[in-house]
Each structure stands twice: as structure tokens, then as C-alpha cells.
UniProtKB/TrEMBL annotation:
One of its GO terms (cellular component) is cytosol. It is an enzyme of class 4 (lyase). Its EC number is 4.1.1.15. This is Glutamate decarboxylase. Its cofactor is pyridoxal 5'-phosphate. InterPro entries: Glutamate_decarboxylase, PyrdxlP-dep_de-COase, PyrdxlP-dep_Trfase, PyrdxlP-dep_Trfase_major. CDD domains: DOPA_deC_like. It catalyses: L-glutamate + H(+) = 4-aminobutanoate + CO2. Belongs to the group II decarboxylase family. Keywords: Decarboxylase, Lyase, Pyridoxal phosphate. GO terms for biological process: L-glutamate catabolic process.
Length: 462
């Protein structure tokens, strides 16, 4: 049975129902079905009360996932909760909204012919990334088979900072992960290190537009240029998939001059999270290919479902339609100018807050929030009596969830705090967080030795 590591504490097997419902002395089991029905009010109150222990999602600076939408979007999603995204015959207009979103993203990311947009919605960027990886593998297999070469040992090159979904992809579909470790002050993939690991069995290079460790962009254009040079020298043709889980909804609006998307001919596909900086509640991602040729036809399935033949190439079948409707609402509601304003405000909050934290004294910035509105800080070397894990625990006392974690291979010595600024995280909230941090430091600076390290602090894992 899967459990959260901190959920293993012993609890009573019974739930006592509050007496205000006139149900004194009634208990119900926690881990098996009750024998009888409960009234809706009683069932609601029990679940509602337990969920209060989750804390306030708006104070969670660990998550990239959207925690606030406009009331009109909330209402629209409630109206669509019963719609199944896969059932395009019964819900043709929901399918039309999905198609419009794919076309909008194709144009936003400069696809060569956005009128022939190729892509789909998914349950998140993890599923979308796996679809991009599958297309890379299948295209490589077809090229190798046509050349009479072996297809036994595919590999995929990426930085060690990639999200865990890529490790899952490699495991599930038997692809060797070739990970570029961090080195010194280089915390993500660069062109030189990527090319070193490529060979004739490389199905692609994954470039991350917005690392979850520190919010930095990987140099997609430089990676593509280095792979162009590799092909000229060796004939090895390696495509690029851009994991734009966060940055693909930031760069088009705030960094329009940055070339990272389909303007680069070597970029074959892009994934993103609608439920991160796409500004939708959890449950939607997007995958877009540069053209129909980039998506092998044998990955498209035609399904007769409820009276109509329809194409599907997502990993999941039944999926909620509400998030797709909400994504289209955001596109319609905000437009290019609105997204620019919302994302620009988040970056302003991030850069201002990072500067304030740097001025407190004990902290040194790793990034400042000027790419993704995300930044990471570490403690200065002379600070030895408390750790970033102590800081994270102290902030939890005020309700803030600020993750502390160590970096991966070759930089396990580096421990950091990371703050994600999302829509709904205002300058006012940032000021309150900085003030609470200032108060926490007054206590932490007086303690003689650290209290928490990576093994004893509340867990945060990429």
C-alpha cells in the first residue's frame, strides 16, 4: 500500500461523528466501507475537517501548480465536471475547444504551419513529455530500421535536473538515460556536455525551459546549434524535445526575443503544463509537434467510441474536460496582453523578493527569478549554526511551505531553499513571507548548532 512517508503515524481506526448533527456516540470506520449511508452534511463535514490539515495552498511556495483561478473559471469548471474529454462525439464542442488550444499554442510557439497544428491535451506535462519521448523513439527506430541498423540500445540525453517523469519514461520504454551531472556553478544542461553524450543511438536531447531546481532556462538555441555542428561533422541527426512544463508559458510573453521553440528547426516537440503557468487548476498538460511528420502515424489510434471513429494518441483514455474548458477560458479572457501582465507581475514579485532576501545577510542567491519567476537561495559558508532545513521548518510554523533540498549528483553538497511565485502570490504576500523570515532568523541565529538536516526535515523531493 502506498503511503506518504509522513502519514505512517498511528491513528484510530474509528472516526467519531461531531454531536452537532444529533448523532452522538456514532463512529464510522476509517479504512473500510461503513455499513450504512451517512447524510451528505455529515460526510461532507468529516472530509472537510480532515482536509483542513493540508494547510493553505496559497502559502505553498513549493508547488508550480496553479492554486487560484477567477470565480468565473471556477463556475465554468463546475459546469464541465461531468464531461469526458475522450468522448468527442458526445461532447463535440469540448473537443473543439481542445483543438483551438492546440492551434493557439502552435502559433504561440511558432510552428511552421500552425493551420496544421499537431498535438493534444494530456493530464499534465508528465504525460505530455512521455508522448514526446515516444515519438522520438519511434522516429529513431524507423530511421535505423530503414538503414538496416540495430534498434536495440536507444538513449536519451538530458541534464540531471530533469523532472522525474523522464526517469519514468526511460524505465517504462527501455531507453538509456544519459544524464549530464551538475558541475560547479553549472546547474543544468549546456551544449558542450549534451553533444559529448550523443551518438547514433541517441533518440533525442531534452532541453528544459525552466529547471525545477532553480528556475533557470537551459540554452536551447545553443544546444540546437551544437547538434547542427555534430550532424555536419558526423552525419548523426539528433532532434530536440523542449520540456517547457513551466517556461513555455513564460518565455513567449516575457522573453519574446529568446529563440527556444519551433523557430529552431531541430526542435521536434514541446510539452507544457496548463496547470502551472498556463494558470489552470491541476489536471491539464499539452504536447505539440512542429508538424504532422514529427508524430509517427503508428502512434495514432483510431477508436470507435460511442458511435464515432476518433483519433487518440494520449496515454490516458477517459480524462476530465473541465480543465480544457478552463484553459480556453484563460486564453480568451487574458489574451496575449493579459498573459504578459500576469506573468510579468509574477516575475516582478520574484525578483523583488529575492533581492529582499539577499539583503537579510545570511543568504546568497543562486538565481533571482528573472527567468522563471522562481528563485533559489543558499546560506553563506560562514553560517554554521543553522541550515536551510532549519529555516524551512521555522517558516512552517507560520503556515509557509518553503522547500529545502539538496542538489543532485556532483553537487550534493549544495542545499537550498526555493520559492515559486505563481498567480495569486502578491507583493503583499511576499512582504509577509520576508518579514516572517526575518523574525525566524532572529531565533535561528541564536541557536548554537543546526537542528535539522536533509534526513530529519520535512521531506521535499523532486
Amino acid at each position: 500500500m502506498l503511503k506518504h512517508p509522513r502519514a505512517a503515524r498511528p491513528v484510530s481506526e474509528q472516526v467519531a461523528v461531531a454531536p452537532r448533527y444529533g448523532l452522538e456516540n456514532l463512529t464510522i470506520p476509517r479504512h473500510e466501507l461503513p455499513a450504512d449511508e451517512l447524510s451528505p452534511d455529515v460526510a461532507y463535514q468529516i472530509v472537510h475537517d480532515e482536509l483542513m490539515l493540508d494547510g493553505n495552498a496559497r502559502l505553498n511556495t513549493a508547488t508550480f501548480v496553479t492554486t487560484w483561478m477567477e470565480p468565473q473559471a471556477d463556475r465554468l469548471m463546475a459546469e464541465c465536471f461531468d464531461k469526458n474529454m475522450i468522448d468527442k462525439d458526445e461532447y463535440p464542442q469540448t473537443a473543439e475547444l481542445e483543438s483551438r488550444c492546440v492551434h493557439i499554442l502552435s502559433r504561440l510557439w511558432h510552428a511552421p504551419d500552425p493551420r496544421q497544428a499537431t498535438g493534444c491535451s494530456t493530464t499534465g506535462s508528465s504525460e505530455a513529455a512521455m508522448l514526446g519521448g515516444l515519438a522520438l523513439k519511434r522516429r529513431w527506430q524507423k530511421r535505423r530500421t530503414a538503414a538496416g541498423a540495430s534498434t536495440d540500445r536507444p538513449n536519451l540525453v538530458m541534464g540531471i535536473n530533469v523532472q522525474v517523469c523522464w526517469e519514468k519514461f526511460a524505465n517504462y520504454w527501455d531507453v538509456e538515460m544519459r544524464l549530464v551531472p551538475m558541475d560547479g556553478d553549472r546547474y543544468h544542461l549546456n551544449a558542450e556536455e549534451a553533444v559529448k553524450l550523443c551518438d547514433e543511438n541517441t533518440i533525442g536531447v531534452v532541453a528544459v525551459l525552466g529547471s525545477t531546481f532553480d528556475g533557470s532556462y537551459e540554452p536551447v538555441a545553443e544546444i540546437c546549434a551544437a547538434l547542427d555542428d555534430l550532424q555536419q561533422r558526423t552525419g548523426v541527426d539528433v532532434p530536440v524535445h523542449v520540456d517547457g512544463a513551466s517556461g513555455a508559458f513564460i518565455a513567449p510573453f516575457l522573453d519574446p526575443e529568446l529563440e527556444w521553440d519551433f523557430r529552431l528547426p531541430r526542435v521536434a516537440s514541446i510539452n507544457t503544463s496548463g496547470h502551472k503557468y498556463g494558470l489552470v487548476y491541476p489536471g491539464v498538460g499539452w504536447i505539440v509537434w512542429r508538424d504532422a511528420q514529427a508524430l509517427p502515424e503508428d502512434l495514432i489510434f483510431w477508436v470507435n467510441y460511442l458511435g464515432d471513429d476518433m483519433p487518440t494518441f494520449a496515454l490516458n483514455f477517459s480524462r476530465p474536460g473541465a480543465q480544457v474548458a478552463a484553459q480556453y477560458y484563460n486564453f480568451l479572457r487574458l489574451g496575449f496582453a493579459g498573459y504578459t501582465r500576469v506573468q510579468g507581475y509574477a516575475r516582478d514579485v520574484a525578483t523583488r523578493m529575492s533581492a529582499q532576501i539577499a539583503e537579510l545577510g545570511p543568504f546568497e542567491l543562486i538565481t533571482r527569478g528573472d527567468e522563471l519567476p522562481v528563485f533559489a537561495v543558499k546560506l553563506r559558508e560562514q553560517v554554521t549554526n543553522f541550515t536551510v532545513f532549519d529555516v524551512s521548518q521555522a517558516l512552517r510554523e507560520r503556515g509557509w511551505q518553503v522547500p529545502a533540498y539538496t542538489f543532485p549528483k556532483n553537487r550534493e553538497d549544495l542545499a537550498a531553499l526555493r520559492i515559486v511565485v505563481r498567480r495569486g502570490f502578491t507583493h503583499d504576500l511576499a512582504d509577509m513571507l520576508v518579514e516572517d523570515l526575518r523574525r525566524a532568523l532572529q531565533r535561528l541565529e541564536k541557536q548554537p548548532v543546526p537542528t535539522h538536516d536533509a534526513s530529519t526535515a520535512s521531506g521535499f523531493h523532486h
